[in-house]
Amino acid sequence: xxxxxxxxxxxxxxxxxxxxxxxxxxxxxxxxxxxxxxxxxxxxxxxxxxxxxxxxxxxxxxxxxxxxxxxxxxxxxxxxxxxxxxxxx
Length: 89
Known about the structure:
By secondary structure, this protein is mainly alpha-helical. The chain has helices spanning 3-20, 25-32, 36-45, 50-59, 66-69, 71-79. The protein contains six helices and no strands.
């Protein structure tokens, strides 16, 4: 469980529902063709599957970015050391 991301995910999913013009989380789940339990699990665990995050970004015309829904991926990316080029001389 990613407790540090739970609030970010809840806020992003609420913004997604608003941007998609749906009145509730249940309606958002229907638009995404997922169960309301799946959406609830995302909120509870703070983890949204990356492909669903991309789907939400498309559904909201970019108002809610996949980066908002997958902060763990973004944080992991920036935590990695910089890759050094290979000298092929």
